[in-house]
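Researcher: Please predict.
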Amino acid sequence: MQFGIFTVGDVTTDPTNGTTPTEHERIKAMVRIALKAEEVGLDVFATGEHHNPPFVPSSPTTMLGHIAARTSKLILSTSTTLITTNDPVKIAEDFAMLQHLADGRVDLMMGRGNTGPVYPWFGQDIRQGIPLAIENYALLHKLWREDVVDWSGKFRTPLQGFTSTPRPLDGVPPFVWHGSIRSPEIAEQAAYYGDGFFANHIFWPKEHFQQLISFYRQRFEHYGHGSADQAIVGLGGQAFIRPKSQDAWNEFRPYFDNAPVYGHGPSLEEFTEQTPLTVGSPQEVIDKTLTFREHFGDYQRQLFLMDHAGLPLKTVLEQLDLLGEQVIPVLRKELDALRPAHVPDAPTHESLKAAALVGSEA
């Protein structure tokens, strides 16, 4: 079981004192948060990709390459890489390069993106989001597995005798998760390729994502990648932690109430009841996260959103201390003990390399 954090890289005013970080400060804070994640024993750091204010992570591989040079164990990922508005050739090159720089500590999450204005900035049409996601990923998948590629599709110029460089490290492409909050077509795509499916269920009730994940599991089995309970599932989550539950509620409430994403809507109490958001003590976060397995089955990756809504860096680092020292060790022990032997761990570069070696000898 892998545990980690993901960031959307928002630049948001702190509602308690009216201060707003500069873009420079926010970017540096994201790096500091990643380093802290490794320090406290987390497995994964994932950054989003956004090209519009108030977000700063427009170049995830640049940031992850910098973090790779300053870490030794942390898996570096995205949440998400926009498969619709990025050229698949450039994705293939950038993430293979990052693979080499990070000695294999790289995977990525594909998403089509829901911000309409971004599409025309990159010459695309959001009404073609699903077809773009399907065609572009088919090309990316091919570029990483074939040394010489001929390609013709609807959304980009043809390729003739093209070789993407560098080639994936050890001949093993980065593992791909497909992230979606509402599209069964993306769950189908993940299942078809035997890739992972990531349900970032932080904003909607669990019943919606139970349907998506169940569909993905059924189709994973249909395509012959293993039984439904062996499908590779990742989940999002949110937490605000303090040693005492009431302190957590009192401190987080102004951030929640004013957050651009969910402020001025349901109350904090309603939101924590209806979504994975947990505000409280370490034990309360443990208890609620353990219910995810009951709702979605055994899964391989759990990522938490911890650094949003204007929370100051000092507070986020304190959250990571509590998460890494008091929450994750218990969750890791409990969930690993519950997982049946036939349900796989989350793929890593080393496990994929070993599987490829076995396949070549068969």
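Model: The chain has a mean pLDDT of 94.
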